[in-house]
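call fold(seq) -> tokens
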Amino acid sequence: MPSYQDALTLFHSWTEGESLRRHAYAVEAAMAAYARHLGEDEELWRITGLLHDMDYEKHPTRDEHPFVGVAVLKEKGYPAEVTDAILGHATYSGTPRETSLAKALFACDELAGFITACGYVRPTNLEGLKPRSVKKKLKDKAFAAAVSRDDIRQGVEELGVELDEHIARVIEGMQADAERLGF
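ret:
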């Protein structure tokens, strides 16, 4: 299995845009929080979060993303656990989310993007952000309109956690990496 540094180098070679990089770092941070909570391999979970959209900048269509990136990851020796989770985060891929890793990636992806948007409109960014505030913003369909509320709901159900708990854990992970996320 390639190291985290290998994954970061690969990610940077595929993803130049700061916005997409920050999104990947946010998902990575959320995945790290889940790995710690569940007693899983934090580096593996970080790598999965980091690389989940690595091909999106160059291959944004449903025909190519995440299939192109997964093919590269397989060539480079990433395990099926990682590549299956990345395939599973795209609901249209046909890949079921059967592992905790896959379920967490799907659950964290949209929510990390939404929490990022919440942080950008607050004077204290992520500091002091509570699940209650995030849930209030989720009800406002005009706020971060591109974020799929259905995917967030489905992710929570598949992961088997309460929405408040999930939001709190993603916030916790993102707060730990706030500087890297641009906050």
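The mean pLDDT is 97.
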